Amino acid sequence: MKLARLDAGPEIFHTLQGEGVSVGRPAIFVRTSRCNLHCRWCDTDYTWNFKGTPWEHDRGTKHDKADVTFEIAPAELASRLAAMPCRHVVLTGGEPLLQQGELLEMIGLLRATDPGWSFEVETNGTRVPEPGFDAAIQQFNISPKLSHSGMDEALRIVPVALGHFAAHPRAWFKFVATGPGDLEEIGTLAEHYGIAPDRIVLMPEGRTAAELDRSAAKLAAAALERGWRFSDRLHVRLWGDQRGV
Ligand SMILES: Nc1nc2[nH]cc(C(=O)O)c2c(=O)[nH]1
Ligand code: SF4
Ligand SMILES: [Mg+2]
């Protein structure tokens, strides 16, 4: 399977969940490589924005695919995780649901020796998980992409997948907003798919504290008004714009 590469190894790191409903929870993050979307402001574009691809990204730098990819077998990933000091894992990317078969194999190996492992998945909500994978995951954090991502609506909004997660008892919706203009778009989606306000988390976009500050207070007020939740980006506040945190 393909993970993002960080220095000489795969991008696996022990940190606090920085976003969404479980902000502050200690976790091991595993960053898969590859995504089916290509958002213009993506902060992990080294998982998909490779040399020779036509995708447009705000930073405009293309990555060498081999330099930013780490191939690893599910069993090897499981043994690296077993050596870490935490039993809660966040699977992120890229888009982790592109490799759910391999991830499920890894989960099975870990749980065979310790059933206490728990897993969250960060996904763009365009793929319906396989039943076995779905059942193995304690929490899905769905981030549907809005028009400011630059993606065609037909690619970023997949009704069968969004409908699946809207009805899912363990799914939460995290919307990245760049400003008050995005609120109407989020409200329309929430209404169309029947997502209760309490399951919506509004989060500012930004790779630095200064960028977050541009919209955080306005978005927090908007969340309060609508009965939505608000999440800052804790890891950005604590550690700034770096990888592996
Ligand atoms: N600390 C921390 N929390 C996160 N929550 C979601 C992340 C992601 O990149 O998917 C992330 C991340 O990269 N770091
Ligand atoms: S869906 Fe997420 S990982 Fe994929 S391009 Fe968009 S922001 Fe990046
Ligand atoms: Mg991130």
UniProtKB/TrEMBL annotation:
Keyword S-adenosyl-L-methionine listed: yes
Iron among keywords: yes
E.C. no: 4.3.99.3
Cofactors named for this entry: S-adenosyl-L-methionine; Mg(2+); [4Fe-4S] cluster
Keywords for this protein: 4Fe-4S, Iron, Iron-sulfur, Lyase, Magnesium, Metal-binding, Queuosine biosynthesis, S-adenosyl-L-methionine
Pathway recorded for this protein: Purine metabolism; 7-cyano-7-deazaguanine biosynthesis
Record field: catalytic activity: 6-carboxy-5,6,7,8-tetrahydropterin + H(+) = 7-carboxy-7-carbaguanine + NH4(+)
Annotated signal sequence range: none
PROSITE patterns, per the entry: RADICAL_SAM
Binding site residues for [4Fe-4S] cluster: 35, 39, 42
InterPro entries: 7-CO-7-deazaguanine_synth-like (IPR024924), Aldolase_TIM (IPR013785), rSAM (IPR007197), rSAM_sf (IPR058240)
Pfam families named in the record: Radical_SAM
Top-rank EC class of the record's enzyme: lyase
Residues reported to bind substrate: 16-18, 31, 92
Quaternary assembly: Homodimer.
Family designation: Belongs to the radical SAM superfamily. 7-carboxy-7-deazaguanine synthase family.
Function per UniProt: Catalyzes the complex heterocyclic radical-mediated conversion of 6-carboxy-5,6,7,8-tetrahydropterin (CPH4) to 7-carboxy-7-deazaguanine (CDG), a step common to the biosynthetic pathways of all 7-deazapurine-containing compounds.
HAMAP family: QueE (MF_00917)
PANTHER family linked: 7-CARBOXY-7-DEAZAGUANINE SYNTHASE
Protein name, entry field: 7-carboxy-7-deazaguanine synthase
